[in-house]
Amino acid sequence: MEVKLIVFDKDGTLLDCDAYWQEAIRLQLKGLADRGVDEDTIKWCRVSMGINADGSLDPDGPWVLASSYDEKIVLATCLYQRLGWQWDRIQELLDEVYHELEELMCLETISKAIPGVPEALAALQERGYILAVATTDNHLKAEAMLETAGISHFFADVIGRDLVAKGKPAPDMLAMLAEKHGLMPQEVVMVGDGLPDVEMAKNFGAIPIGVLSGAGREQALREVTGHIFPQVQSFVHWLLTQK
User: Fold this and answer.
1) Where are the domains of the chain?
2) Is the pLDDT reported for residue 207 higher than 80?
3) How many other C-beta atoms can be found within 10 angstroms of the C-beta atom of residue 18?
4) Is 85 helix (H, G, I), strand (E, B) or coil?
5) Within a 10 A sphere around the Cβ of 47, how many other Cβ atoms?
6) What percent of the chain has pLDDT over 90?
7) Which three-class secondary structure state does DSSP give residue 38?
8) Strand order in the sheet with 228-229
9) Average pLDDT, rounded, for the chain
10) What is the pLDDT of residue 243?
11) What is the rounded distance in angstroms from the CA atom of residue 217 to the CA atom of residue 169?
C-alpha cells in the first residue's frame, strides 16, 4: 500500500533541540532557586529529571521523553520528598516556574531547523505527501517553534500531547491523524529520533523510521525497526529514490 502521510517528531528530528533544552533547563532550575529551593534539592531534581552533571541528558529520562505535565509530577515528587512542603503549594510553585519559563524563552534564538530539513520537507511536499508533526509538547508551543524555525508551512497538522488521551508510545496521535485524512495504518510513516516514536508507529501498525539526529540511541531503535537513517534528509532521499 502506498505511503500517503509522513509524520515527524519535532525535537531532535526536525529541530536542533540542544540549545532549546539547555536554555529551558537553565530557566527551570533558576525558577526553583528564585523561589527558595536549596542547591542540594535542585541537584536532586536534576538527577530525577535525567540531567547529568555535565549537562548531557539521559535519552531514556523524563526531560527527553516526558510531557510537561509528567515533568511537573517528577519535580513535585522530588520537592515533596526533599522539602516536605504541602503538595498544593508545590503545584502552585511549579505552575509559576513553567509559566515564567514560557515567557522568558526566546524562540527566535533557540528554534532552529536541523540543516537540510527544510529542503527535505519541500521535496516531500512537491511529491504530494501529507506531512504532519506528533510531539510530546503542547501543540501551540510546537506550532510556535516550527513557525520560528521557518518550517511550519510544510505541515497539515501539528498534534501535541495535550490533544490526545495518551501520549507516545500509545498510538493515539497517529490514530487521530489517520482518521482525519481517511488513511489506513499502512499508509502512514512515523519518523523520529526516540524509541517512543518508533514504538508508537509499531503500536498503530504504521511504518516506523528511526533517525540518529537527536537523543535516541541506535541500538534501542534497531530493536523496533530496521529502517534507520542518520537524519531526515537521508530518509527522504531513500524514499524518493524507491519510485
Assistant:
1) 5-16+112-240, 18-108
2) yes
3) 17
4) coil
5) 13
6) 78
7) coil
8) 157-159, 130-134, 5-8, 188-192, 207-211, 228-229
9) 93
10) 60
11) 16
Specify whether the CB–CB gap between 174 and 185 falls below 8 A. yes
pLDDT digits (tens, 9 = 90+) for 90-121: 999 999 999 998 888 877 777 899 999 999 99
Q: How far apart are CA 18 and CA 35, in angstroms?
A: 26
E strands, 65-211, are: 130-134, 157-159, 188-192, 207-211
CA triple 170-76-10, angle to 5 deg: 40
- How many CB atoms within 10 Å of residue 205? 14
Q: What are the grid coordinates assigned to 231, written together?
A: 537524519
Interatomic CA distance for residues 211 and 108, integer angstroms: 25
- Cell for 221? 531503535
Question: Of 115, 225, 158, 110, whose CA–CA distance to 7 is shortest?
Answer: 158
Q: Can you give 192-228 as a three-state secondary structure string? A: ECCHHHHHHHHHHCCEEEEECCCCCCHHHHHCCCCCE
Q: How far is CA 218 from CA 56, 61, 193, 227, in A?
A: 17, 16, 9, 11
CATH number of this structure's domain 5-16+112-240: 3.40.50.1000
Return the percent helix, strand and coil in the chain, to nearest 5. Answer: 55, 10, 35
The CA-based angle 59-61-63, given to 5 degrees, is: 95
Residue 224 one-letter amino acid: V
Which grid coordinates are listed for 234? 537521508
